[in-house]
Specification:
By secondary structure, this protein is mostly beta strands. The protein contains no helices and six strands.
Length: 81
Amino acid sequence: MNRVSLLTNLKYLSMAQDITVWFDPEGDFLEVLFEKKEGYFRETASDAVMEKVDLQGNVIGFSILKVSALHSQQPLSVSLT
């Protein structure tokens, strides 16, 4: 599994923060973490996306399954709650 740590200032974040991105080519999934804390994954409206939430239910990341299948599809859009 490859690990890339990115520092970015995204429009929806109030300040720059470290974001950890994991890509697993063998498992064909991508994981993005906004915070490194205990949590669990739950389903979203998309079969391809799982959101990671902390124990209080705050979104701390997401994962995208079957990433290689996305190249031939429309952009993937899902709301994280």
